[in-house]
Amino acid sequence: MNQDYIKPDNWSIIEEGFDASSVKSSESLFSIGNGAMGQRANFEETYTGETFQGSYIAGIYYPDKTKVGWWKNGYPKYFAKVLNAPNWIGIDVEINEENLDLNTCTEVRNFRRELNMKEGWYNRSFEATLKNGTEIAVNIRRFLSLDLDEAGIIKFEITPLNKDAKIVYKPYVDAGVTNEDANWEEKFWEPLEVKKGTNEAFVTAQTFKTHFKVTTFMHNTILANDEDIHVSPSTIDSTADKVQYTYGTIIAKGQTSAIQKIGGYTVSLNHDNTLAAAEKTIKAALNLGYDALLQNQIDAWAKIWEMSDITIDGDVKAQQGIRFNIFQLNQTYLGKDSRLNIGPKGFTGEKYGGSTYWDTEAYCIPFYMATKDQQVARNLLTYRFNQLDKAIENAKDNLGFKNGAALYPMVTMNGEECHNEWEITHEEIHRNGAIAFAIFNYNRFTGDYSYIPEKGLEVLIGIARFWHQRASFSKEKNQYVILGVTGPNEYENNINNNFYTNYIAKWCIDYTEEQIKKVAAEYPADHKRILEKVNLAEAEIQEWKKVANNMYFPKSEELGVYLQQDGFLDKDLVPVKDLDKSQRPINQKWSWDRVLRSPYIKQADVLQCFYFFEDHFSKEELKRNFEFYESFTVHESSLSPCVHSIQAAHLDKMDMAYTFYLRTSRLDLDDYNKEVEEGCHITSMAGTWMSIVEGFGGMRVKNDQLHFAPKIPKEWKGYSFKINFRNQILKVSVNHDETTFTVDGDQDLTIVVNGNPEIASKFVQIN
């Protein structure tokens, strides 16, 4: 834990007291989004202290040319920057002719931020004394509408405390923005058009190269004591990329002045005429009005929480942590648009780039399958199907593969590889396996097999072809090997025979063959269509099987563990407990050369295999491998604690499982990895949900049935969650004395609890 200023609360993220050193961290933690857009919790008014400005629009990116020392064949042509979008939240404020700036006020009192996760709004309030002696109380509420998802709303209220005040509001929209990660402070937006109305303004700009067109808009209303006083701007200033209005008001001491600002984005992804769409969005928001928009927001979040909430009784920090994770996941992706995906930073920062990693398939799909309609998860699978041609192109053009072999990109916006680190782009090929596993996992959980003959089998064939060509035959071992890879543990690069990679390669080939046979038997028309389309014959499948049936897996017979890679035991095997704490995190303290030569593991690697394929191994095998590898794991990946928590719970190591749960659930809130100011770890948050449902709840799907093995940490009095399993809603409630299963509906559901079949109906209690 590296920070501890967030106040424990069941439903809100709360900061009390103004501390300039935590501003950038809080900008990440208090971020808001609605699936279509999002923004960091930047101040609306001027702030001259350190800040990380960030607003983001789903699906909008810039292909920044890859920079490498020596260009090699196959390097990605660009790195996809997640773009800082034009600023619509800005409101400069002058009070008695002095600019409001918390960095220059003589005193800031009673500063408080609240991110209300239950109702979906962000609030900031404070009292301040300006250099001119004016004392004010300020309250600002902001939310991004879930229903009207191109619009956001700000209500900025000021109450003078010690004298009457002349208050000047200067709201603006500004496309002249840069990225925090810009190489030379270059701009990525080209202004096209500015339009000004009485109280509304529009700036239309497009991205260089990709030519996404965006209209950024605002509408302003000036209030006194919550009544519209129908003030028009006294001046309008504009440039090619910015419009700013000036509204002057006078308010008596103790009375409240406010500006109500509607703003947001309309995008060429969704509209032919973005300006007309922006005008329509403003009209729709005004017709509803602030109070109705806020109530609709509260109602929309209530509907989300009804299905996705996890309750924890007796541990406020644990409760706050899981709700923060669930809230951010729902802010980032709601499943409305199959063109979109779940970026690793969501709408909270720019780091990593791209809109999806293997995190979506490995960690996020289980959350969305169980807490939404299954169509949401199917949309995430469809996203990959729609990019299959690009995956084939990637394998062909960048790696020299042939015959329809597909390598899905490690990072992408449109199907093309857009990550510029060779050891990840070329070597972290295990992502192909996670995509195949997600198809299997979707069918296993939902029972919807139709995706495979319609779309999934083509993806599986492309992936199987890749693994067949990527493996090579070792005469020395008389087996097939996979050389020069990076496994999930990114603290080892260019190693041979990563156990997880080899295992999932074999599994992909076996699973693809099974599905080809099943589709042939049950969907003969689809089977004929697909095999003709991809030009697949039985002889090629038999060549795949030679690789799968004779794959090499490194193992230590002496230790009884699978080896992470061929040379793992050649390392200086000093466990993490004996590593000086001053050396942590090693990725910030050590040279990369030293990291690569060390035995230290960033995240689950061999154990990732045991997580995916738990049924393939005995519990004793898991125990040996868990105890060996966890002792070398530094958990410097956000994806690490959740897998370890699930496996620790399975092994009845409940203290360890609870510790890992707290780490995954509060990774950002407590800034374990000292990097939260760069943005939150959105995709790993789905792993936090899995830590409870699959870890403590022990949920598995076997033979078309839900299995549970409930456990409870001693720190909790009880917990509960809901699962949408094949269109039946099951609520699971666990305490130290009993577990209760309740089905929402009249149809019974057969479940297996601790190995014993049970019939879950309106109420089933297991002691």
UniProtKB/TrEMBL annotation:
Swiss-Prot/TrEMBL keywords: Hydrolase
Domain Glycoside hydrolase family 65 C-terminal: 699-756
MF terms (GO), sorted A to Z: hydrolase activity
Cited InterPro entries: 6-hairpin_glycosidase_sf, 6hp_glycosidase-like_sf, Gal_mutarotase_sf_dom, GH65_N, Glyco_hydro_65_C, Glyco_hydro_65_M, Glyco_hydro_65_N, Malt_Pase/Glycosyl_Hdrlase
All copies of domain Glycoside hydrolase family 65 N-terminal, residue ranges: 14-268
Entry's transmembrane regions: none
Segment forming the signal sequence: none
Domain Glycoside hydrolase family 65 central catalytic: 323-690
Family statement: Belongs to the glycosyl hydrolase 65 family.
Protein name listed in UniProt: Glycoside hydrolase family 65 protein
Source organism of the structure: Flavobacterium piscisymbiosum
